[in-house]
């Protein structure tokens, strides 16, 4: 541990913004709690994502990160004035996130030396460069390198972890029962949305066809996992498919209540989005339909995963919508390919 941190009894962590990145950062949270066992650790996280973390043992306090207006910044400063963190760790890359900690009067802030903030941080590693660009590496490693810079003891086998309280587990069990899912049922989760943009979304007609083939081949219950704003996607799948599909859209499942649903799945078939990382955390077999993103960023902890991605000249583009108009990276992943992958997990049932 850096000498400057050895007497710390309160610290703050600025969590990532994307759901999947928060889950991939959980080994960092574990590392901080292990190295600062008696310290007060505060998470600063977007309000929509606090349900991911609320049941975990890492944090003593969770503060909503609403730092885009004056009132939100004042609230953060008031909370930190009460909690008195002696240093902050930024898992985000923006200068704005540094300025939020600065406004909240944190005496020391560590993070990657990127953008303008590289001149302002107390310390932090430089990102690994390759041919003048930041080299893509798995995000779990990217985050843990911050802990290495702080000279902390790193978990020997780091892996994303999520927690479910007894209350949340009971609510999840009741919801599953209301869906008609019994203890011995095979449950296949379908996650057709992606908050990033349409470029990450597998065609709804493919999901509709896949649902029919899954039910014909494996039986069981099909659980359609629907996030806020994805109701229209779910409707198109339901209307186009003859399969019996449990549509969760009406329940408006938030990120906390999503945890027990994914944990119950025997298999999750998902776009490359947040829920795939829940499956990693809960050791649920999953098939990832990956399109425009670089698979290196999520290349850890794939023991329970099958990643289907087409090797095309335009991949990865990291665009929210297909700039070429053909969306070949997703359209060329066929339902037959997914069924073949599913058979590896469910064929013995």
Automatic annotation (TrEMBL):
Recorded GO MF terms: ADP-heptose-lipopolysaccharide heptosyltransferase activity
Pfam family, any one: Glyco_transf_9
SUPFAM superfamilies: UDP-Glycosyltransferase/glycogen phosphorylase (SSF53756)
One GO process term, biological-process aspect: lipopolysaccharide core region biosynthetic process
The enzyme's E.C. designation: 2.4.99.24
GO CC term, one of those recorded: cytosol
InterPro entries xref list: Glyco_trans_9, LPS_LOS_Heptosyltrfase, RfaF
UniProt entry tagged with the keyword Transferase: yes
Catalysed conversion reaction: an L-alpha-D-Hep-(1->5)-[alpha-Kdo-(2->4)]-alpha-Kdo-(2->6)-lipid A + ADP-L-glycero-beta-D-manno-heptose = an L-alpha-D-Hep-(1->3)-L-alpha-D-Hep-(1->5)-[alpha-Kdo-(2->4)]-alpha-Kdo-(2->6)-lipid A + ADP + H(+)
Keywords assigned by UniProt, alphabetized: Glycosyltransferase, Transferase
Segments crossing the lipid bilayer: none
PANTHER family xrefs: ADP-HEPTOSE--LPS HEPTOSYLTRANSFERASE 2, TETRAACYLDISACCHARIDE 4'-KINASE-RELATED
Similarity-based family: Belongs to the glycosyltransferase 9 family.
This protein's name: lipopolysaccharide heptosyltransferase II
